[in-house]
Amino acid sequence: MEKIVEILKGLHPEVDYDTCETLIDDKIIDSFDIVTLVSDLSDEFDITIPVEEIKPENFNSAKAIYAMVERILDEE
Amino acid sequence: MQRNVLEYLEQTVRKVPKKIAYADEKMGITFEEVFHQSRAIGTYLQEQGHYREPIVVFMGKHPRTIVTFYGVIYSGNYYVPIDDEMPRHRIELIFQSLHPKAVICDEETGKLLETFPYHGKVYFYEEMITSPINDKLLERTRDRQIDTDPIYIVFTSGSTGIPKGVVACHRSVIDYIENLSEVLQFNENTIFGSQTPLYVDACLKELYPTLKFGATTYLIPKTYFMFPLKLVEFLNEYKINTICWVVSALTMISAFGALEKEVPRYLHTIAFGSEVFPIKQFNRWKKHLPNTRFVNLYGPTEATGMSCYYEVNREFALDEVIPIGRPFNNTEIILLDENNQEAKFGEVGEICIRGTSLTLGYYNNFEKTEEVFVQNPLNKAYPELIYRTGDLGKYNEQGELIFVSRKDNQIKHMGHRIELGEIEIVANGMEKIKSACSLFDHDKKKIILYYVGEVTPAQVATYLKEKLPRYMVPNVIEALETMPLTANGKIDRVLLKNKYNQK
Fold first, then answer.
1. CB neighbours (10 Å) of residue B169?
2. Half-sphere exposure of B336 (CA within 13 A, CB side)
3. What is the value of pTM for the model shown?
4. Closest chain A residue to B230 measured between Cα atoms?
5. Which of A31, A38, A51 sits opposite B229 (nearest CB)?
6. What is the C-alpha separation between B218 and B222, in angstroms, rounded?
7. What is the Cα–Cα distance from B438 to B425, expressed in whole angstroms?
8. Listed residue (B127, B202, B194, B146) closest to B1, CA to CA
9. Pick from A32, A39, A54: CB nearest B229
């Protein structure tokens, strides 16, 4: 979880990722960020994020991103 | 002879009044409603005393925004679209350049407008559409109008960072829409999926053909362009068969592997432009949609929209570029060399455009207008304007026009004339590179390459050394996480240059 917050802080340091659950809905994360995020997460956790996981509900909060990464790690 | 773009609407509303013209996920608006509401807005604006003025339309990406555009045209004024996505500073510069007397808002942007130093009139869409229509007044206005009267002003970024307002008229838009429609074969069954924001000229490709043919346009929310599968599902849900998108929107889908999961199965026409389509990504699209027509479009805002087209009809090697082909009917391309002579066949020249599609120039800026809208140097006998695009092109052996690079990307290095665009094409041909941009440091005489991809700079250097003459191999190679893009989806060279200079 810490690693994920760290990656997110790299994109937008001003956001409180412990509480924010509207990263996509409030347009905090944009399309450039998604590309960066997917690539950073893949490197950091050594995973391949399948395209069906690249959907809004998986990126709306640090928690959701964490859950997605866990799920992919379990499946691999 | 048609002399007003609204004639498209007036003919179509008689044929298919109940058909949906513009829609998003939440709502749709019929031609009848477009017709009624835009005349109400037109009446309202005239009764407020506005005529032949820029009217700013400060609204989001929504069907009612499009209706407002037409309302402004009915009133005999011209619309200037801006959007809350634009950087604040840019909006301020636009206000400074226009001195508008009126701004039209929706509920959301109305509050935002209060934070700007603007003291003119503010009107609200919801209120304007309830205004009673005065047909006599609208008719009188129509009678006074000619086809070279302005319709809209859109702002381009401008290499200096000061936005320039391009003024387009009925005549240039009609010429563009007629010729574009012929090439892309739009008809009443066309269902568009619109990607671009409404404040750029790119949205003309959907807005006006929808009026002309009684077609339908779905506005796709910007957030969908972050989620490839959701986007493909949107295209399928609304049976979208025609898209005119920037290349980066298409490559986002193919690069994440979305086409392997779901194919946009109704798409029969894909037009793309604004950037070079990397062949690797293009081939993925072609593989999954073998029967779809792919058409490359090229053109500057100053010539209304697109000026050239090329329908992809053969295989391309990874280091080739898809041609921009040939001009639309009623447009001519002249390639001029450094001495203002026509470039010899196969040689590089500046792409200059001749035709009715030329816009009127830059608003409140005669100086900049006269720099690029110039007398055709090949004609010494009578006044004739051409537009100098600042883009360099050449003809290939098949006689197809190729975009080479921006004129200011042409450099002299170690005695050689180099097109930075050529370095980018070669770099983009490397398997793992997703995007590349080359710059030149004129002081230190260094070629710089920024790229996005999972390779080290050393690997890129090795690859480029094999492919390029020694003098063209970049001296500085740096990886980026993402390529900065402008609002139009082109690589933001100004930003990259600043980034380099700050080091």
1. 22
2. 22
3. 0.84
4. A55
5. A51
6. 12
7. 10
8. B146
9. A54
Say yes or no: domain B328-405 is CATH 2.30.38.10.
yes
Asked whether the beta carbons of residue B481 and residue A40 sit closer than 8 angstroms, the reply is yes
Q: For an interface test with B, which of A11, A23, A25, A34 has the most B Cβ atoms less than 10 Å from its Cβ? A: A34
* Interface contact flag, A27 B223, Cβ < 8 Å: yes
Please tell me which of the candidates B223, B256, B481 has its beta carbon nearest to residue A51. B256
How many Å lie between the alpha carbon of B229 and the closest alpha carbon of chain A? Answer: 6
pLDDT tens over chain B, length 503 residues: 999 999 999 999 999 999 999 999 999 999 999 999 999 999 999 999 999 999 999 999 999 999 999 999 999 999 999 988 777 878 888 999 999 999 999 988 999 999 999 999 999 999 999 999 999 999 999 999 999 999 999 998 654 557 889 999 999 999 999 999 999 999 999 999 999 899 989 899 999 999 999 999 999 998 898 899 999 999 999 999 999 998 888 988 998 889 999 999 999 999 998 777 889 899 999 999 999 999 999 999 999 999 999 999 999 998 888 999 999 999 999 999 989 999 999 999 999 999 999 999 999 999 999 999 999 999 999 999 999 999 999 999 999 999 987 777 777 776 676 778 878 888 988 888 988 999 988 777 788 999 999 899 888 988 888 777 777 888 889 999 989 888 767 788 888 988 888 87
Residues in B closer than 8 angstroms to A32, CB to CB, are 482, 484-485
Closest residue of chain B to A10, computed from CA coordinates: B481
* B414-501, CATH topology level: GMP Synthetase; Chain A, domain 3 (3.30.300)
Residue B500: count of CB within 10 angstroms of its CB: 15
Report the CATH superfamily, name and number, of domain A2-75: ACP-like (1.10.1200.10)
Residue B315, CA distances (Å) to B108, B260, B275, B287 in order: 48, 21, 19, 11
B227–A38 CB contact, under 8 Å:
no
Contact check, Cβ <8 Å, B226/A39: no
Residue limits of CATH 2.30.38.10 in chain B: 328-405
SS3 B198: coil
Which helix (H) or strand (E) segment holds residue A38: the answer is helix A31-45
Residues of chain B with CATH 3.30.300.30: 414-501
